[in-house]
């Protein structure tokens, strides 16, 4: 990054950096998470299906997400430790960082569901709100058609709002409509192997995947040295905190 990039992130609350990883590296991670996903589905209890199954796809059963790949998959641990990524992360939140939580998002073709606008720091409740950055790694090209991220420019400089969850979806915390209506959201396409970084306060969401192509991604939620999720809105396994630098 150069000073322009750093200033852009501070002002807008997000920054897209293409070309961090190579395409074949992303293909290798995809093969690994596909195998993990197949085994996960076979043992998924009925009471947890709403949490993990993508309700937008009716023709087949597909996963919406998987949690904490950094704790289960060496391929994702290697991404988290990679200096090409860590140099960028540490430029945002300083040297000495850990992955506190991570996710795989599948966003399958022909109906992969949207993610409503939210702020990560409401979910996480960090001790230091400035010491959290999400690195959203594009395992496929993320486009307007297949459900790229959208951001609320400058919302990193505002407060964390109390979110609500729709009935029957306690996991789907989101910003109240009256607040969101006042905030334009701008798309942020990213090429396969690129990384979209955002501050924990930044409004962000994604649309449905109405294309014929996958939009898989790996989100690594990095925290600065000594930071922790002190007042989380959902339960997190603090023992999975993974020191990477």
Features:
245 residues; Phytyl_CoA_dOase-like; four-stranded antiparallel sheet; single chain; dioxygenase; globular; oxidoreductase; alpha+beta; dioxygenase activity; 11 strands; seven-stranded antiparallel sheet
Give a description of the structure:
The protein has 245 residues and is of the alpha+beta class. Helices cover 27% and strands 21% of the residues. It is built from eight helices and eleven strands. Strands 1, 2, 3, 5, 8, 10 and 11 form a seven-stranded antiparallel beta sheet that branches. It has a four-stranded antiparallel beta sheet with strand order 4-9-6-7, with no helix packed on it. The model has no long low-confidence stretch (mean pLDDT 96). InterPro entries: Phytyl_CoA_dOase-like (IPR008775). This is Phytanoyl-CoA dioxygenase family protein. Keywords: Dioxygenase, Oxidoreductase.
Structure, briefly:
This protein is of the alpha+beta class and 245 residues long.
- Ends apart, CA distance between termini: 19 Å
SSE string: HEHHEHHHEEHEEHEEEEE
Shape: globular
The proportion of strand residues reads 15-25%
Helix content class: 25-40%
Multimeric state of these chains? single chain
Give the overall pLDDT as a whole number: 96
Structural class: alpha+beta
Number of E-state strands: 11
Low-pLDDT parts are none
- Gyration radius, rounded: 17 Å
Number of helices: 8
């Amino acid at each position: 990054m150069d000073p322009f990039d750093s200033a852009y992130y501070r002002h807008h609350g997000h920054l897209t950096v293409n070309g961090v990883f190579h395409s074949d590296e992303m293909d290798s991670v995809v093969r690994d998470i596909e195998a993990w996903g197949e085994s996960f589905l076979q043992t998924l209890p009925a009471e947890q299906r709403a949490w993990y199954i993508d309700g937008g796809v009716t023709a087949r059963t597909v996963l919406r997400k998987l949690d904490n790949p950094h704790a289960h998959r060496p391929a994702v641990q290697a991404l988290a430790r990679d200096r090409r990524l860590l140099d960028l992360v540490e430029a945002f939140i300083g040297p000495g960082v850990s992955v506190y939580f991570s996710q795989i998002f599948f966003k399958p073709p022909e109906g992969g569901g949207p993610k409503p606008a939210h702020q990560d720091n409401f979910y996480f409740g960090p001790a230091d709100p400035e010491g959290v950055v999400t690195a959203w790694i594009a395992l496929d090209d993320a486009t307007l058609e297949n459900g790229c991220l959208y951001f609320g420019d400058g919302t990193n400089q505002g407060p964390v709002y109390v979110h609500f969850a729709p009935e029957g979806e306690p996991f789907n915390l989101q910003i109240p409509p009256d607040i969101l209506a006042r905030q334009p959201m701008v798309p942020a396409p990213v090429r396969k192997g690129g990384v979209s970084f955002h501050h924990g306060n930044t409004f962000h969401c994604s649309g449905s995947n109405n294309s014929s192509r996958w939009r898989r991604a790996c989100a690594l939620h990095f925290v600065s040295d000594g930071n922790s999720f002190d007042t989380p809105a959902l339960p997190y396994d603090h023992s999975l905190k993974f020191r990477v630098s």
